Fold each of these.
Amino acid sequence: MDSRVKAVTFRVGAFRRRIAWVFGLQFVIVAIVCILGIYNVMPTAVVIAVIVITTAIAWLTTRREWRPVRALARLVNHWDGQQLDPESLHLDQLSTHTDADVASLVHGLHGFATRIAGYNQRERNFTRDASHELRSPLTVIKMSVDMLTEEEGLSEFGARSVRRIKRATREMEVLVEALLLLARETDATDSERFVVNDVLHTELASARELLTGRPIELLLEEPASFALRGSAQAFSVLCWQLIRNACQQTEQGSVVITVMPGVVSVSNHADPHIPGDSSRPVRVHGADRHGFELAIAQRISDRFGWPLELQTRVGRENIARIRFSHPLPVEASDKS
């Protein structure tokens, strides 16, 4: 039976009428026994006992009538948008004695839960299909570029073009990973354990390769090391966006990644002058707080609860700092 049709069978104000009957009968009984007690027709102990019993019955009856609302509140309270079955909110699950207002609320929540379930399914289908369709051509481009790199007799102009294609492909690959990561609602890899320093070593090796020919030096300082429980991919994409943003802040200098207890910072240090032209200072941008890289980094930090701080110091240094509230010690199993 369609829920819209069945909703008509629920009586409007049924809950209020039943509660009114309960308290009305309680009032009549209490009034009668009080009158009997005043005229000594009924002992005081019996009067008190009757009042207590009628009050308890009224309370139990009211609690029973409130049970559908309490069950609905409990169901919604434990709903995380992923595990709730919309059919558990179907009107067929309700008693015919349920008040029409409660039935209307259940009907609205059922429609809302159905739309959310449909959205989640479409989101999973899209990310699955987009992941395949976007990664496949990037893989082909990467393989072709690697083959061109090994080609003998490639001109200097061709080599520069290959490096530009390789750099753009890597940037597009990271961008796709970031967007797919943000598009996914949940992921089983969001609770894996990883060592922060190991991920940074991998990212720096990739970044140095793409900075070939540019007067920018990447440095990693490791006064500390720690592990995290979360998404290693998300941390990798976050650090890549911050490193790329730091490299864009200056024409020449160094980008330093520092690992402190529970903190990872990315800072860019610019040399004051370009070699061979002491009269021309290096152009250093202030911290761009509205850039695309920082926008993605901010969304990832918000998603995973890793606060991101941006700071511009007097001179030629911009710092992006990520703080982790629950760093873990590096264990022997993490190093294997």
Note: The chain has a mean pLDDT of 78.
Amino acid sequence: MAFQDIPKVEDPETYIDITFHAGERAGSLKRNELKGTDVTRLIRSRIIETAKIGAVQKTGVDVLLNLVRQFPSLDRLDPFYLALVKCTLDYDFLKKSLGGVMWAADRLDKLANDALRKIKATRDLEHINAHRQAFYGRTASVFKQIKTNLKYLEESRKTLKKFPPIKTDIPTVVIAGAPNVGKSSLLSALTGSTPKIAPYPFTTQNLMLGYLSCDGKKIQLIDTPGLLDRPLEHRNPIEKQAVLALKHLAKAIIFVLDPSEACGYPFQEQLNLLAEIKRSFPAPVIVVANKSDLQHGKKLAPDTIMVSAEKKIGIDDVKHKIVTITSQDAHSE
């Protein structure tokens, strides 16, 4: 989803200037074409003013419709991005603002057609100019009526631009666990490359993105520092929504434990976080015990995968589990 490519939304005065400039330019070109011809003043005026109105109509409608097209279709957004939109923006007013711009495009189109009909029917030179001037005034009024909508769309654009560039068309595995348990090291070990950094709403940290290719299948891995590393009860309601948006994305979750407690967090506290993740997310959870080369004496569940991300021990076992789970998910769909 290319939210970063949405162009800046201008104020009404800017769009008015753009459309009227197009109209005056079209009028000048038509005026030059008519030089040296023997058409009457009435016909000359009708041709020139018609050209102006036509250019304003096309430019204004195109500007407004293109503005709407640059924004994502809210009705067709991936559930992950839709959840992010709803917890970072006023979803209803965003829809209303896009609808306001659509209304303005339709209104401008109808005003232009009405003015063109009047100019075609009139036989009075002064009336031709008056109809064009009236159209210009109404066009400016239409743009000014959506000032609040345009302002909110620009605010929304700035927020959307900060959304992470997640690939929603391939399986995604989210890596969770307490701070300093080795999540980023595991991500690097699984992907064999330096993770890509992406921002995420309501955290000063960044997501770390990596991609695993295995058995001809591409899988997206996401490390979530600052997100799935502490209980949800420690977050405000909006932060909680942003965290839970990840449930729309995750086909599986890797939960990393550090039984040695070298991370600085008691093992029981890590297990409590694991239990909360399992309650909050419907995706299957792969439990990985990192730093397996360190002595810990902790009792682990039988299905826990023992690894050392630093020494690349057990990494293939994790890869196999990821591919197995994401393949099962694809078949069930």
Note: The chain has two domains: 3-160, 172-332.
Amino acid sequence: MTPGRWTLWLVAMGAGTCIALSAGSAVALADTADSGPPSDHGTSQDATSGSDAGTSDKADDKADDKAEAAKSSSKDEPEDDDGTDSLRDDDRPSASHSGDTKGADKYGTDPDGATQDDDHDAPASTVDEPTTAEDDQLTAQPDTSVTSPPAVDTDTITAPTKAQDPMQALATMATNFWSSLGVAPAVARPAPTAEPVAAASTVTGVRTGHSTLTIPVGDKGFNTNADWYFPTQADGSVSATGVIWLQHGFLSDKSFTSDLAKSLSQQTNSIVVAPNVPSFPLRCSGCSLNGVQMQQAVATMFDGDQEALNSSAMKAGFSGTLPEQFILAGHSAGGGFAAGVGGFYATNPNQRRLRGVVMFDGVARDDALPDALERLGTVPVYQIAAPPQAWNAFGSTTSQLVAARPGQFVGVTLANGSHVDALIGSNPIVDFVMQLVTRFSPRGNTAAVYTLANGWINDLYQGLGPTDGTGIYGAPDEYLVLGNAAGVVLAPAPTVDVDRYLGTWYEVGSVKQFFSLGLVNTKAEYSLNPDGSIRVVNSGNYFFSNGPLSRIVGVALPVNAANNKLNVTFFGPASANPPGNYWIVDLDPDYQWAIVSDSTGFSGFLLTRDPVISDELYRELLNRASVKGVRGWITRTRQPAAESAAVSV
């Protein structure tokens, strides 16, 4: 690429980033402005009291009604007379608001005069109104309301066409810009079809509400904003199986988890509460995601009659009493928070309501997770992980979970996954910026997250698990095909039997290095030297079968007891000192294939006993390499000699 083209590329990248970030800031400002008191330009809502079924008069839609409008379909559907949004059959549950509210107090003021969580540190925080109920139906429902709508003097009522939200236009422009450069960010996709338990099969939609939640930490308690998601049945009633506390991650906000929360509520028949918890202890000591005092306080909220939770749910439009059994879940640092809360809850031997912990690429600080796991005892803890990357501390928490529960099913890593796989779909602009900061989420990964989590939670409510549940599990290191995505069951690094590893391995793919460019028929032959070291002979031809031969001889020594890390050198004696430069990160139990990398992850080799393999196996090895932390670009290595022999036969 010429210097001029490099300059054009960098300018284009900067312009696209500015568009996305500016649009994201506008969404945050629009959301905050619309959810506060009426402003001078006259935007307001008609608030009328409604029942738990969410039936109420519909307020006139505004083009800038909510920041959530940025995630709605670019072509809005007409609204039904019963006040719920009509959806196409292939639509996901909508996040559009009905405009119904209960109560007259604005969200910024608590009846007791307590301070709200106004200094929240998320980049796109939301200021909510209390007792707001919204319906998110999966399919268009006929109007079965007994109360007829007000009489109108026209014969036909046509719902007005909504103007396209300017934030949606900006999001589309940014997405199209990056797509034109060959970068395709993930966008909202249809939720996967899960196999819910019988109770969840009666859920027809999800109603959302907003209220304050008081966490008993600090001298006066910590009041924060919370979103509630209520699974509704066909008659509008709520008969939930359990409660899920869903915690956002570091420098994040409850709104980032909205699509995930709706899926969990709908597919597991759960009441989901998603509160804001600050990333830094600015309000009081310990008032943060990583604060021990905050985690201990949340644990006490599930004791006894759950007064604070029931009070907040009631203010959000729920009548009745919350179910007693519950799940703790969270994304990133919120996953570490969920595990920490679970550990403190489990220290009370009289409390047995916690059914499990589900982390979405959860990250815990230092040794917080091992301590929590010890307190949790036999309570299941599952992780849906992304491959090692900066935003998940390079998989340190996942490794701790695997080490703490050897031989048990503890989760799945999604191939080529992003740290934000679980969050895609809540807002197109936020989605784009999050992926720009972390990495782009592959097609199908978000649906796979939903399928895994919903299946596990349905099983947890019934006391089922990997051996008798209906969710997706597997043996350690088992490869899973998940629709358009793939994953590998969490497992420790392999223990290598050196004698079985010896012999000939064919390279079918690798991260090409300068000396391997153009090499074909590449293979490695390992044998024992008299001194116990391993003799290494690498060879191949340049460009074609009978091309110039390349051959080099070296020596290798293991540097750890598991023999999965070695030092290989082609000049001088080998060293047995860690960390080694030849890491066997994945290995077939029958020693028919191996994946080799190093401590950086920028080198990678796909080795097989057979020189010619199927496309299916090659694709699996590529996905496994991603899961095991290989970050370099692997391309296929041709074996023309073996291919010609196979054709002749």
Note: The chain has a mean pLDDT of 79.
